[in-house]
Design a protein that fits this description.
The complex is a heterodimer of chains A (159) and B (119).
Chain A: E1 10-16, H1 20-29, E2 46-51, E3 58-63, E4 68-78, E5 82-87, E6 103-112, E7 116-124, H2 133-158
Chain B: H1 3-10, H2 14-25, E1 28-29, H3 30-35, H4 41-53, E2 57-62, E3 65-70, H5 73-108
Antiparallel strand pairs in B: 1-3, 2-3
Classes of the chains: A alpha+beta (159), B mainly alpha (119).
Chain lengths: 159, 119
């Protein structure tokens, strides 16, 4: 009965001095080469981030201790122009294979002239990570903090 | 008055606090709240107006009635998180792409290319 919450997608676009295929390959074939090392979900740092080059393939990090932690899967694999990944990491950083609870990352590589590429990035359906009870939990706990503050203030005033 | 002070003041009335707690549990219409409390509909509406002005609740139309819910602050935080994550990570990707482009230029000994800045 409550209206679904919609979160505005995160969008970015920028130009690189590479051909679309070169940019596509740089983005997908060795993500660990550019992805900041501080961002991993496994207990130890990653040595590799794999995007399997096919629809239905996995997107996962491989950690120093050899464990693989999945981030998502490949929804569209259309080199050199388009890539769509599902983002299955939930707010507790656990992976869910359920696509209805996953957001989507789309990256398009648009040719600019004869040697450059416009990278158009979108991370959408973010609200899927906050559906159902999670919204209630997140919001309620947020407001619990406010109410606690209020109670403390009220107690101070009355003493 | 700061945002929090305004919020606290809005909650400083016991009836209004009770209404807010109901709405925080799940979205309610004015009628639903009035049904369960010894307060008239106009009074409930007035309290909700104060809560809305304090930024504590938002309302949306559902058919002919107006439903009140707490403002989803957690949602803003989620979006901000991803906004920051991708700004940083795509800047890192851009840096890697610039380096790859430079290598390409050196390899083919073409010069005079300009690099545009970031996102």
């Amino acid at each position: 009965m409550t209206q679904a919450v919609v979160i505005e997608p995160v969008r970015k676009s920028f130009e690189v001095e590479l051909l679309p295929l070169e940019a596509f390959q740089l983005f997908t074939s060795d993500m660990a080469a550019w992805w900041p090392a501080t961002h991993h979900i496994g207990p130890s740092p990653f040595i590799e981030i794999v995007i399997e080059p096919r629809v239905g393939g996995g997107w996962f990090e491989v950690d120093q201790d050899g464990t693989a932690c999945q981030w998502g899967s490949i929804l569209a694999w259309e080199p050199p122009h388009k890539l769509v990944l599902s983002w299955g990491l939930q707010s507790d950083w656990k992976f869910s294979p359920d696509l209805s609870k996953s957001s989507e990352v789309e990256v398009r590589f648009v040719p600019m002239g004869d040697s450059a590429t416009l990278v158009e990035f979108e991370h959408r359906y973010l609200e899927r990570h906050y559906e159902g009870e999670k919204i209630a939990v997140g919001v309620t706990s947020g407001w619990d903090v406010v109410l606690e503050g209020f109670k403390a203030l009220a107690a101070k005033k009355s003493s | 008055m700061t945002y929090l002070e305004r919020a606290f003041e809005a909650l400083g009335d016991s009836t209004r606090l009770a209404i807010f707690q109901r709405v925080a549990a799940r979205p309610h219409s004015v009628g639903e709240i009035a049904e369960h409390m010894p307060v008239s509909r106009p009074a409930v509406s007035q309290h909700l107006r104060v809560l809305k002005q304090a930024g504590l609740v938002s309302d949306l139309k559902e058919g002919t009635r107006r439903v009140y819910q707490v403002k989803p602050e957690g949602i803003d935080a989620l979006r901000k998180y991803f906004e920051q994550l991708w700004t940083r990570n795509l800047n890192a990707f851009k840096t890697a792409a610039d380096k790859a482009a430079e290598r390409k230029i050196n390899d083919s000994s073409r010069g005079n290319r300009t690099r545009k800045k970031v996102i």
